[in-house]
């Protein structure tokens, strides 16, 4: 699964122009699901253009209540009405800039599942945590807190994006070995909590400076795709990443 996170980029007109260039480049990629998460303002336009293409619509954030006096927030039912299938939850930028803690992320994850959407849960360590040898402890804490109280049925649908914070938007990329180690550890924790069959169903993406040049090498045994930031803003680069993932799938 290759997902685009456009972050705070693209007006509606720019989003339409992207898709006009992108869609002809990715007809029938084998073995790869594509999802695009534009800003809230572009969701209706992007959703309309994606209809019938097989490409999923995603949102970058959500609030955990279905409605209420929460100025500026967007609820799961609102996203579902627009045709969203996926919702990114717990991105490091949300944790850092908007002070989302593990409890908030758990509530969002639960709400997303309960309204028939699928969360892409982002987890990852900072450079300081990595240097201190705390990578696995951080991943375990973030993952356990997020799935606490969730049924095995829900967790089996989960997409987890392993995004080392030090590799997001920095140009630095984890090595394929680093990406595989993080994904393997996360899958092992799901195995421990929910059993082998659920652990096998969970998809684990890698995110952090994914580019066409490194995409194929990052598709390792436990890495089932990528959550792409900067490179997803360019239709040709994003299409190239999809094709590299398809090639990795066909050769596996």
In short:
By secondary structure, the chain is of the alpha/beta class.
Fold blueprint:
Blueprint lengths: L1 E4 L6 H11 L11 E4 L5 H8 L5 E4 L16 H6 L2 E6 L2 H6 L4 H13 L3 E6 L3 H5 L3 H13 L4 H6 L1 E4 L13 H19 L1 H6 L1 E5 L4 H7 L7 E3 L6 H17 L1
Parallel strand pairs: 1-2, 1-8, 2-3, 3-4, 4-5, 5-6, 6-7, 7-8
Helix pairs in contact: 1-2, 1-12, 5-7, 7-9, 11-12
**At the first level of CATH, what is the class?**
Alpha Beta
Counting helices, strands and paired strands, the structural category is: alpha/beta
Taking pLDDT < 50 over at least 5 consecutive residues as the criterion, the unreliable ranges are none
Our measurement of the CA-to-CA distance between the termini, rounded to an integer number of angstroms, reads 15 Å
**β-strand amount:** 5-15%
- Which fold name fills CATH's third level, the topology? TIM Barrel
- Widest sheet: strand ordering: 1-2-3-4-5-6-7-8
Number of domains: 1
- Name the helix and strand elements from N-terminus to C-terminus, one letter apiece: EHEHEHEHHEHHHEHHEHEH
Q: Count of DSSP E strands? A: 8
CATH 4th-level superfamily: Aldolase class I
Radius of gyration (CA) equals 17 Å
Globally, the shape reads globular
CATH architecture: Alpha-Beta Barrel
């Amino acid at each position: 699964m290759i997902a685009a996170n456009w972050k705070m980029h693209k007006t509606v007109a720019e989003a339409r122009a992207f898709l006009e260039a992108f869609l002809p480049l990715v007809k029938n990629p084998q073995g790869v699901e594509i999802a695009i998460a534009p800003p809230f303002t572009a969701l209706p336009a992007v959703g309309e253009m994606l209809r019938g293409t097989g490409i999923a619509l995603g949102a970058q954030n959500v609030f955990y209540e279905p409605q209420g006096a929460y100025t500026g927030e967007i609820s799961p039912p609102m996203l579902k009405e627009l045709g969203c299938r996926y919702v990114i939850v717990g991105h490091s930028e949300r944790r850092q800039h908007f002070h989302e803690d593990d409890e908030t992320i758990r509530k969002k994850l639960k709400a997303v599942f309960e309204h028939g959407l699928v969360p892409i849960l982002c987890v990852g360590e900072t450079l300081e945590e990595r240097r201190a040898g705390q990578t696995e402890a951080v991943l375990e804490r973030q993952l356990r807190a997020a799935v606490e109280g969730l049924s095995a049925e829900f967790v089996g649908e989960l997409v987890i994006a392993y995004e080392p914070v030090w590799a997001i938007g920095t140009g630095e990329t984890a090595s394929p070995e680093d990406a595989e180690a993080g994904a393997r550890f996360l899958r092992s924790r799901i195995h421990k909590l929910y059993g082998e069959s659920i652990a096998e169903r969970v998809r684990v993406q890698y995110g952090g400076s994914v580019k066409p040049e490194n995409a194929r090498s990052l598709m390792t045994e436990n890495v089932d795709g990528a959550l792409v930031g900067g490179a997803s803003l360019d239709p040709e680069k994003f299409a190239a990443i999809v094709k590299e993932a398809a090639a990795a799938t066909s050769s596996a």
